[in-house]
Amino acid sequence: MSQRRKIRYRLFAWRWFPKLKPSHEPIDVVIPIIAKDLHILPLCLEGVRRCVAHPIQQVYIVAPAEQEILQFCQQYDLQFVDETSVFGFTPQSLGIKFQDEKGQVRDRSGWLFQQFVKLSGKIGTCRYYLCIDADHVLIRPHVFLTEEQKTVFYMSYEEHQPYYDNIHRLMPDLPLDTLSYVDHKMLFDKEQLKKLHEALTGDSDKSWMQVVKESYDPRTHAGFSEFELYGNFVQEKERRPWLQKRLSYKKLADYDTLQRKWKGSRWSLTFPDYINK
């Protein structure tokens, strides 16, 4: 996005919005992780505990069955889900690879597998569940489901054309919003997911995951977005700006310090691994 459009977006984001009244229906929280996420995850969990405006039934960690992850879940009273139990296969079974500009082969199977977990509707007992990236920290209150049972989507100015190209291949007639649904967090409705799965498969005897996998362009680093697909698919919704800040690990601090420093200008913080390499 151009600098001018970003400025317009920020002005739009700071415009007054009617206050949302949250639904009192309980939700689950689902966080797919790998071991390297554990050092940021406590901040993510604290943000969920303080800033999600709904009763939380259970927090589920979907991950490989590694000792340090199991110990973390026990320490923080989280429900562990072995990732191989969700679909009956491992992430590596997807075999999603691409060749980068240096000619090196990169494996994106785990990345796509986590998106399948989020879209599966298989985790938890509640109808609604919040998926949030382990490196994402909420620092202001967030409503994800209104009194009228409308899902609230926090939208960004991300523009990644392969995501939209993929949606056009999957669902050519689906209209796309101007802003992006890629926001590190999303509330999923299992009833809406069932409709999405049916729309993806149509009259085919393939599973919805097979359909998505076959639509993936192997020439691109990131060729599918669960957030873009689901957000555009849901029709009855509320939209809000995200106002997040991306930070390096050098800016890590305890939750109260981060909140005091940033809550005046941001609603959430992200500590992505890729900017620290």
Span between termini: 24 Å
Number of strands: 12
Mean pLDDT: 92
- Helix/strand/pairing class, anyone? alpha/beta
Helix content: 25-40%
* Biggest pleated-sheet summary: 5 strands, mixed
Principal-axis shape equals globular
Please trace the helix and strand order, writing H or E for each element: HEHEHEHEEHEEEHEHHHEEHE
Strand content bin: 15-25%
Low-confidence stretches: none
Cα gyration radius (Å)? 18 Å
Total DSSP helices: 10
Strand order of the largest sheet: 3-2-1-6-9
Question: What does it look like?
Answer:
- With 277 residues, this protein is of the alpha/beta class.
- Helices cover 34% and strands 19% of the residues.
- The chain has ten helices and twelve strands.
- The strands form four sheets. It has a five-stranded mixed beta sheet with strand order 3-2-1-6-9, sandwiched between helices. The chain has a three-stranded mixed beta sheet with strand order 7-12-11. Strands 4-5 form a two-stranded antiparallel sheet.
- Helix 3 links the parallel strand 2 and strand 3.
- The longest helix is centred in the middle third of the chain and has 12 residues.
- The mean pLDDT is 92.
Labels describing this entry:
12 strands; 19% strand; alpha/beta; 5-stranded mixed sheet; 277 residues; globular; 3-stranded mixed sheet
Write the layout of secondary structure elements.
Elements: H1 3-13, E1 27-32, H2 41-51, E2 56-63, H3 67-75, E3 79-82, H4 84-87, E4 97-99, E5 105-107, H5 109-120, E6 128-132, E7 136-138, E8 151-155, H6 161-170, E9 185-189, H7 190-201, H8 208-215, H9 226-233, E10 237-241, E11 244-246, H10 255-262, E12 268-270
Parallel strand pairs: 1-2, 1-6, 2-3, 8-10, 11-12
Antiparallel strand pairs: 4-5, 6-9, 7-12
